[in-house]
Amino acid sequence: MESKWNTLREAMDSTTHKGTHFSEQQKQEIWEKIRSDNSSMNDQPKKVVMFAITTVAAAIFLLLLTIEFIGVNESPPGMEDGSLVVADEWEVRHEYSENGEVLFRVFPDNGLTAGETYGYLFSFTEDFDVFKGKYLAIYAQHKETGQRINVLFGKRITEPSHGYQSLERFTPFLAVPYGGLWKYEVFIKGELYGDVVLSVNEKQKGTLFLPEGIPDYVQEPDFGQINWDRKAVEFGRNMVGNENKSGVIGAQMPSLSGQKWMWHIWGERGRELTVVGYHRETESVHQILKNSWSIGLGGENNGADAHTPSTVIVPIRGEWALLLYVDGELFDILVYEFEE
Asked: Which helix (H) or strand (E) is 325 found in, with range?
């Protein structure tokens, strides 16, 4: 196993410090820490201040780099030793209360359907100071399968809802893959704030919903080109994909909660790579790259004509087809099965 890790690290060494490795949330947290340390040490000599700042930033950088590249994944909020810790309450409920006081209500679309993106209007009742400057995330757990996915990555709250004093009209756009009962858990600054239970309609078999924000050049007929029998295979330096076309370092060690992959393209020197995930069982389309649908491509690496690193999140177990677009044109389709 150690030799496999060494080979993987060696293959990725040439681009470890290239590209974007931090999300906006991570960047903000680093700078906030730096500013905090700097303000508390104003009476110290400049050299000492700079040393402390550099040490803090370097420590955070190394920690995040280790998590992303070596495949060590943080457990999502509400997880202890890999076991989900939530109350077993599944009665449909559109509001959350504590001590007789309603903390928030949610007003979902009446036609809420699996596989399609909808706006969920959350109306919070507490003063804005409770949320200001903090990160708000939402997880959803499916009653029937027990699967739990992050439907809203941490969003930093900087201002109230437009025209209101607090978050009376906080409206994220979310999608879940299955019909049935879903428990939506709201986290503020990494701590469970409250939850609601909503009923989601099953989608009609054969209906394909393209999520809001997906690039215009992604069209429904593209998904008809998927060949589920053409599985991605291992080749070269721990590469998994379609040899001499496209391949990924990192895909042979899949993770449902986030992992660093290195994409490789042969025969093209494009500027931008778009990745669109299609889950076979639920017939649903998903964003796979953590921060966006697309990412910039770099130059040659590991024998490929173009490459780029990225963080990927595969939200559901099962068979996946990853449609790769280079500069807006469908380039290749990678078929994987993720069970871990």
From this structure: strand 318-326
